[in-house]
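I trust your eye. Have a critical look at both lines of this record:
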Amino acid sequence: MKRTVADLMTTELLHVEPQSTALAALQRMEEGGVRHLLVLEEGELRGIISNRDIVRVNLSNAGRVLDLEGCSAAQIMTPAPLSTTTPKASLPEVAGRMHREKIDALPVLDEGRLVGILSSDDVLRAVSEMEVPCSAKP
């Protein structure tokens, strides 16, 4: 059976608004046990925050401490347009794309409407659950 994004994606979407503080975003990520957080404004996808974004912002501010309460989610997020996928995309298709583009999470859109998120953890879990046929020993 061919697995699709719909089979793997997370539909319980954790998010913050662009004007939320970076600290609030990090707390939301910690509380949810996630490495990626969607940034939504009035239900529309505006960006995504990943743990890589936090590292990038810190490196660009070398020598200074990042003010997590004075910095907004909009200032640290990767802004839209983002690479996205659809619920009908296949596991090999999205895994290859995530690898090529070095992306760890893809928002999932169905006819332009945000319906989920697919992370590299979801893809790895699916691969680990696949039955691999035993090969005959020579």
